[in-house]
């Protein structure tokens, strides 16, 4: 009886909600090569013996079919179907209610928040030199973009005798990155083997770091270990001595911008043989990451795990902490510094995810712009800013955001979605389905092999290079010869938005001031 | 390759200097130095709350490391440990065997909260009682099946989030050098969120004690085969009569489902 009701509800859903996308064919151009049907991993396209037909309900607008069509005969359109206009209960709200009243489930989403919250970045303009101070030609003069990750000593105490100056001090471990940009944490499991490999290869070539995500490190990737930040999350998946001692830096993941305060849940069907080996869990079992770390209920407890990791690595490896940007981010960050972290990653509410409840992804946290400002300000006031490197993540979309977030107080930024887009992701936001037609957010071997590792890593390298060049262009125009001098240099930003309160919170003057 | 006598002799390290406890940093450094000098049997004296003892120490069965702790070790005893044997002549604090990969920890006393957190392999034997959330998120992988045995009783959320391995609570109590039975070996919210592994409780478990997703399962011949060697090792460690332990029946708790939250989410595009 229950099944019958379930089926009735299922069919009810289909009738209530119109398909979101429509696949349009130009029948004159179509040569029936059926390449689109092979490429569609969502089961939207098939050949009925006469022509290609579409099940529009299955389409997610990943555009694989359209871009693979040799005849450019396919076009995907957002369904123009509209419910009777209502500003308050718009189509999106009505779709959510129809869906939830059908399934009774928690809506799942992936990628970053897709709601049109205003970007503070877009209200900030950058300064440049005119007459009174000279700008620098970035193509012909040196501009330093290297960043050192880790704790800095407040001062050097050299010993001098009549001839020599000696510096016998113990320096905390630091890592050098060639530009103030790293790849954020995406685990093998959330993205494919080929996607991970492309990222690590690129990180090595660029001379920057890439996050492992919380799924451990696949045995093949240990050759890139000097460029990998190993994440330790509440599930402790894949965390053993080889991992702890192998990676360049360790990051304790407390939270993620897309789902602050939320755990992780890799469903059993995604735990393939490879994922099982990397995470060190049985094949096919659910991989649940508890919501909190159950050995961390306080700053003191966090200090304890940091201490344990430092003790285990004999103080040779920087240990950092990643938190989501939440309302009280500044005092939390202060606590993290005092707990002994060498770097902090703050992930803004727009940050991406392989899967998160939509309600959390879209409505929890604060923007990275204000979070970084608050943290930088607080740490400066407490005179502990030099104790950490701050990474900012959570929708650093392009180089302008990178430059502005550094000026607001970050040492460097971390990016994920732009890296995925560089590899070919079309941001269709279906990562949680595990069917990525571009071979990125999937574990299905036939789909994974679609991602050309050499090409993808080259494209990531190009992206990083161009961002760095654009950063140098702006630094040159501002007459700044080192990115470290841009950090927290809010005097070189002006606000042009509509809300002076934001300018006040950011500590940025309004244009004209 | 045991060639010199020095290897077999216990190297005694005091955790106190001038009647003040030394820091955990210094204590762990002297343990590492001792191992580097091929003195792999280490006796720590007057330990008083030093954390992370044995953190990340690695050894194989062929070339073992043994640590005896006299006093009370601090939190995270044997964290990330992979192989050594640690014996505590007294109580231990929180998070014994945190994310441990292999090895044995024997505690001749009580342990506190979250012992065996996320442990993937090895064994922990506790003679006395445990705190809250013992064996939380224990997991297993291939031949690695972690075992945690609590001689006494565990507090709430015993075996929470458990994903693999074997947890055992015996409900024993020492009284005037006799062993007697406690009324209950566990508290409510037993195995809350369990999705793998097995929990064995000596004695009854009221249904109201079962946590989310935990289920009582029939105790079978198979389970006796699993339990006997574990109980025998426990009895040997603490010199407790094995037959006394086996006098009372065991309750077996397993996950109600390996996919407790399947169907919880809806993945349709909105």
Report a brief summary of the structure.
The complex is a heterodimer of chains A (513) and B (270). With 513 residues, chain A is of the alpha/beta class.
Q: Element order, helices and strands of chain B?
A: HEEEHEEEEEEEEEEEHHEE
Mean pLDDT score of chain A: 93
Number of helices of chain B: 4
- Provide the CATH top-level class of the domain at 180-510 in chain A: Alpha Beta
Strand order of the largest sheet of chain B: 1-4-5-6-7-8-9-10-13-15-14
Residue fraction in strands of chain B: 25-35%
Structural class of chain A: alpha/beta
**Poorly predicted runs of 5 or more residues of chain B:** 1-6
CATH class category label of the domain at 109-255 in chain B: Mainly Beta
Radius of gyration of chain A: 25 Å
Query: How many E-type strands of chain A?
Result: 23
Mean pLDDT rating of chain B:
93
Low-confidence stretches of chain A: 1-13
Integer-rounded radius of gyration of chain B? 19 Å
The largest sheet of chain A has its strands arranged as 11-12-13-14-17-18-20-21
CATH architecture of the domain at 180-510 in chain A: Alpha-Beta Barrel
Q: What's the CATH topology label of the domain at 109-255 in chain B?
A: Pectate Lyase C-like
The DSSP helix count of chain A reads 16
- How would you characterize the largest beta sheet of chain A? 8 strands, parallel, barrel
């Amino acid at each position: 009886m229950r099944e019958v009701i379930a089926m009735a509800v299922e069919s009810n859903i289909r009738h209530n909600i119109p398909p979101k996308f429509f696949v349009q064919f130009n029948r004159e151009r179509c040569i029936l090569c059926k390449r689109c049907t092979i490429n569609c991993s969502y089961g939207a396209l098939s050949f009925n013996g006469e022509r290609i037909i579409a099940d529009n309900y299955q389409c997610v607008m990943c555009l694989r079919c359209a871009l693979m069509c040799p005849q450019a005969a396919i076009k995907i359109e957002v369904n123009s179907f509209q419910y009777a206009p209502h500003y308050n209960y718009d189509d999106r709200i009505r779709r959510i209610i129809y869906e939830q009243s059908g399934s009774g489930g928690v809506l799942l989403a992936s990628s970053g928040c897709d709601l049109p919250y205003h970007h503070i970045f877009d209200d900030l303009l950058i300064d440049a030199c005119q007459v009174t101070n000279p700008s620098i030609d970035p193509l012909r003069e040196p501009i330093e973009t290297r960043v050192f990750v880790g704790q800095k000593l407040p001062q050097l105490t050299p010993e001098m005798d009549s001839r020599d100056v000696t510096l016998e001090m113990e320096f905390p471990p630091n890592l050098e990155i060639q530009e103030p940009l790293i790849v954020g944490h995406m685990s093998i499991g959330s993205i494919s083997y080929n996607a991970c490999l492309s990222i690590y290869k690129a990180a090595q070539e660029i001379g920057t770091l890439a996050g492992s995500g919380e799924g451990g490190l696949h045995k093949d990737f240990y050759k890139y270990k000097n460029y990998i930040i190993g994440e330790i999350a509440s599930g402790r998946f894949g965390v053993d001595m080889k991992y702890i001692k192998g990676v360049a830096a360790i990051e304790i993941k407390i939270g993620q911008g897309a789902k602050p305060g939320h755990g992780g849940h890799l469903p059993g069907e995604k735990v393939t043989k490879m994922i099982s080996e990397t995470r060190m869990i049985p094949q096919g079992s659910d991989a649940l990451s508890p919501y909190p770390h159950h050995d961390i209920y306080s700053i003191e407890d966090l200090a304890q795990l940091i201490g344990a990791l430092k003790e285990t690595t004999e103080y040779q490896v920087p240990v950092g902490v990643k938190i989501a940007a939440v309302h009280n981010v500044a005092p939390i960050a202060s606590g993290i510094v005092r707990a002994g972290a060498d770097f902090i990653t703050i992930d803004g509410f727009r940050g991406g995810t392989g899967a998160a409840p939509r309600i959390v992804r879209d409505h929890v946290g604060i923007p990275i712009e204000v979070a970084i400002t608050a943290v930088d300000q607080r740490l400066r006031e407490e005179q502990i800013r030099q104790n950490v490197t701050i990474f900012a993540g959570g929708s650093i979309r392009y180089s302008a955001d990178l430059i502005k977030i550094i000026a607001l107080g970050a040492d460097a930024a971390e990016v994920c979605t732009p890296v995925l887009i560089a590899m070919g992701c079309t941001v269709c936001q279906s990562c949680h389905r595990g069917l990525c037609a571009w071979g990125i957010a999937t574990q299905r071997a036939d789909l994974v092999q679609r991602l050309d590792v050499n090409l993808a890593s080259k494209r990531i390298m190009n992206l990083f290079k161009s961002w760095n060049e654009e950063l140098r262009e702006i630094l040159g125009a501002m007459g700044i010869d080192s990115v470290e001098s841009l950090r927290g240099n809010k005097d070189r930003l002006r606000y042009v938005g509509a809300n002076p309160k934001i300018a006040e919170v950011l500590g940025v003057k309004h244009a004209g001031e | 390759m045991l060639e010199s006598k020095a290897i077999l002799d216990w190297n005694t390290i005091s955790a106190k200097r001038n009647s003040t406890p030394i820091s955990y940093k210094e204590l762990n450094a002297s343990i590492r130095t001792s191992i580097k000098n091929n003195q792999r049997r280490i006796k720590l004296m007057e330990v008083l709350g030093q954390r992370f003892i044995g953190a990340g120490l690695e050894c194989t069965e062929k070339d073992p490391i043994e640590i005896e702790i006299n006093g009370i070790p601090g939190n995270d005893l044997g964290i990330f440990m992979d192989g050594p044997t640690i014996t505590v002549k007294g109580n231990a604090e929180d998070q014994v065997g945190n994310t441990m990969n292999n090895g044995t920890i024997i505690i001749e006393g009580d342990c506190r909260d979250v012992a065996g957190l996320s442990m993937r392999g090895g064994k922990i034997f506790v003679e006395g009682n445990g705190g809250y959330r013992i064996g939380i998120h224990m997991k297993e992988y291939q031949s690695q099946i972690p075992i945690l045995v609590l001689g006494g009783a565990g507090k709430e959320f015993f075996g929470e989030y458990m994903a693999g391995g074997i947890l055992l609570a015996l409900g024993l109590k020492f009284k005037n050098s006799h062993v007697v039975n406690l009324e209950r070996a566990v508290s409510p919210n037993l195995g809350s969120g369990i999705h793998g592994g097995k929990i064995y409780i000596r004695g009854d478990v009221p249904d109201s004690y079962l946590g989310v997703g935990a289920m009582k399962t029939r105790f079978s011949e198979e389970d006796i085969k699993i339990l006997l060697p574990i109980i025998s090792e426990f009895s040997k460690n603490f010199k407790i009569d094995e037959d006394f332990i086996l006098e009372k029946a065991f309750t077996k708790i397993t996950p109600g489902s390996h996919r407790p939250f399947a169907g919880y989410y809806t993945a349709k595009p909105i």
